[in-house]
Amino acid sequence: MKLNKAILLCLLAFIFLPKTTWAQKQQPNVLWILTDDQRYDAIRAFNKMIDGKEMSKLGYVESPNVDKLTKEGTTFINTYCQATGCAPSRASMHYGRYPFRSGVYEFEYHNNNASSSKPTLPEQMATLGYETLHIGKLGVRLKTKEGGKLKSAKMYQQDISFKELRKDGLTGWGKDWFDEINGEKIKRQNVEFFVTEEGEFQYISKELENKLPNYKGTAKKAMEEYDLLRHYNKKKGPLTPFTPGILAGVSSRKAGETRDGYYTQFFKKYLDNENKKFKAGSREFKGVNPDKPLFCQIGFDFPHTPVLPPASYRERFKKHTYNVPSFDKKELETMPKQLKKQVEAGYSDHFKDAEKQKMIQDYYAFCAYGDALVGQAVDDFVAYSKSKNQPYMIVYVCGDHGWKLNDHGSVSKFSSWDIDSHNPIVVVSSDKKAFPAGKVVKDFTEFVDIAPTIMAAGGADLEKSEYAYLDGLDMQKVASKEAPKRDYIVGESHAVTGPRAYIRTKDYVFSMQTRPTKKRGEDMNWALNASYKELDPALYYMKKDPHEINNLAFDKKYAKIAKQMKEKLINIVLGDNRVEVNWGKRGDGTQVFHSNFAPGAHDYKLILKK
Predict the structure, then answer these.
(1) Is this structure's pTM higher than 0.85?
(2) How many domains does the chain have?
(3) What is the pLDDT of residues 7-32, one digit of tens each?
(4) Range of the structural domain that residue 575 is part of
């Protein structure tokens, strides 16, 4: 029997082509987009899925580009973060591990030389044959020791860092350490600055104004010019031109030429300059290699403080009046001490009505501007992939955690409340069988799922022992009901509140203090012997209390629920292979401590008995 010539050629190609080349043609290009401090209600499609209405309960929002992604892909609407602070949350995504498994609980520098350390997501993607690129904010403070010296670890093959863009003045706003300004030597200090459209630096520093007469009044001028609302309260002090934390104002640069705007510009340059050099600020980078699959992460800064939308967006949103979340100080009477500490640090209910309106208007205006940039990056990525006839996948993550806009009387993050921890994910794929268009998955998903999802799409066999360290699930299997169904999600964060863990089911959320101090390795099992009161517990029942205001932790009617959730949480975060590492101040420590008195406790099952 004679073989058709075309079939024969295909068979020969399969036999003799290098296996890596064959595999690469099947691997999708992956674009992972992550925003910063973004609450889910800034996205109309999410509001529709969660509350049945497109607009936020606070008022007008717009998000046409992310809304489009939800129509083209699968939305995991009940995704929660593992830590409600930037650095530990981003670490959980990059490692695919819970904080209590990686030992990264807050903003500590850490290293990959500790015995408990595992490869990051981009490192694993490079092993799978990918070219890896990061643009923007990273937030993972990973170090490595080489030749006895400690230095920043290179997770991505190329990194267009926001720190360099800041030094180049491509930011609109920035903060950096200076020894000299405009030729004048100063005592090394962290100086805030604005950059005008003409590239002029406007430095904001009390010390500069006190020591150098030509800088006198610069901060006040900037406050007026950019209409700034700074975060003032009892802990931060009265409102001054030097008060830290800009909650509202207008960007010194036009749309497209802010820091986030340059991220999208440089991504397009990268895609347009195949195997050629291109400039990003003062540095030079190499464009995409079309012969390899691409894994790129863009870490947008919006809407993180300073909240400075471009004027064109700000003016439109000033027309809208918002429903400011109300706060009754009676809530403080039953609020746990740790959460009260967090609320007080970010307290905002004393703001004037006009100030509250301005901070909400500018926050949603900033989100709308960011949505346009997300759309631009997605369009460029899809166009590139289609031009090469390559499959692709987009993973959009709405915030590394949420943000309060006077919810609980505060503007901040760091709490276990829903507004700080609920961050939906959208996955769009050219493979519509894997991630169907328009599908909404209501089962729980977590940030630790991001790494295994992307790795599996890239060809990793997650059943192999080398990937056993991953805590998350492949979201494709969650969508197809092949993965175990979670009855709960868990997390733990140490920043601002102090050590505190949380467990959330469909109806309840329970949180508690896990450690008496942050000192790693000491009193790891403190919560096992501490009194219930010492645990500083919180229990909220969402069906009756969706805004999580009435703490039921000491209500006898809910004692049985609280006890079950407390025991499950303790067994998981403290007893199921907990890791703590003495990282040291510079991140050079490698001393590892373990606690494993309840192995296997994290089984996704929790059926509460009333």
Answers:
(1) yes
(2) 3
(3) 444 444 444 444 444 344 589 999 99
(4) 489-595
